[in-house]
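Renewal narrative, Specific Aim 1. Our central claim is that a sequence can be written position by position from structural information alone. The example that follows is taken directly from our test logs and has not been curated for this report. It begins with the structure tokens describing the chain, in the order in which they were read.
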């Protein structure tokens, strides 16, 4: 039977290593600070050795600026795992979703694991998982890695997404004028990369990330066709392309939080 690789990606301290240890029987270091895992680690699933889980370094973005981001970005974009479990600390959902928006662009099947749901229950906050799933365009599974809660379901969804091999449809998280520019860029770069990576590279081209788009080997004509598309959006929005991508992500995340999370009423912190 063919081997299946499933990458575990997420922010520092979202519980990836706890999940990895639970799934593989490893005893990798679990610690409450960032930067512990700089190398990716891999081990077979306890239940079926043909499935390999890959614990990626914790990151806030796939930019990549830090060594952790380089390792995780290379794995996701170049090594192409069969599926990605994007583990999210549900108690820091807003911050964690920034990376999620980028992972959704990488053209792999993705399942989001909402981790630390045990803590959410204590707080009384409610996440509308179905609404979040439809907004992200991928399955969302509530889990607790620490309590070994619902992990089978998470793996089952990831394996099924990987077996189907259908990448994320491409959640449109940018403003209409940026989405329009991305579509025009995609038409120009079509054929220079794997079709599943077109959205990923369109965003990189829009950001003028020369390092990231080197593998495309764009011709002078292609670059000349694209530049006015970017410039016209920058002029309209009064900001540079890279900042627009970031701020549109934040706007989309804010809307997502508004639509999918109900915070518990704040309790007064007076002693009784
Ligand atoms: P990583 O940096 O993503 O690898 O995160 P770790 O696995 O090292 O976990 C960071 C901290 O979160 C550790 O103290 C874990 O025990 C804790 N943790 C992980 N998963 C859960 C969970 O589901 N619930 C709770 N309450 N704590 C968790
Ligand atoms: K950690
Ligand atoms: Mg870790």
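The sequence written for that structure reads:
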């Amino acid at each position: 039977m063919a081997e299946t690789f499933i990458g575990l990606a997420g922010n520092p301290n979202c519980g990836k290593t706890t999940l990895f240890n639970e799934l593989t029987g490893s005893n990798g270091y679990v610690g409450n600070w960032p930067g512990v895992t700089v190398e990716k680690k891999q081990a077979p699933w306890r239940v079926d050795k043909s499935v390999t889980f890959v614990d990626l370094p914790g990151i806030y973005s796939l930019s990549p600026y830090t060594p952790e981001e380089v390792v995780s970005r290379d794995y996701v974009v170049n090594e192409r795992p069969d599926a990605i479990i994007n583990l999210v600390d549900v108690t820091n959902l807003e911050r964690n979703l920034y990376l999620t928006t980028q992972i959704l662009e990488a053209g792999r099947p993705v399942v989001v694991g909402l981790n630390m749901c045990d803590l959410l229950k204590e707080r009384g906050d409610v996440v509308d998982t179905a609404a979040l799933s439809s907004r992200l365009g991928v399955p969302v599974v509530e889990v607790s890695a620490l309590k070994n809660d619902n992990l089978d379901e998470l793996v089952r969804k990831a394996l099924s997404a990987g077996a189907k091999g259908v990448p994320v449809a491409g959640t449109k998280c940018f403003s209409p004028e940026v989405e329009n520019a991305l579509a025009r860029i995609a038409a120009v770069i079509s054929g220079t990369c794997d079709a599943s990576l077109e959205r990923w590279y369109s965003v990189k081209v829009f950001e003028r990330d020369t390092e990231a788009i080197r593998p495309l080997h764009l011709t002078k004509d292609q670059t000349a066709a694209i530049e006015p598309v970017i410039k016209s959006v920058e002029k309209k929005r009064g900001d540079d392309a890279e900042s627009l991508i970031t701020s549109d992500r934040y706007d989309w995340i804010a809307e997502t939080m508004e639509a999918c999370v109900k915070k518990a009423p704040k309790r007064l912190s007076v002693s009784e």
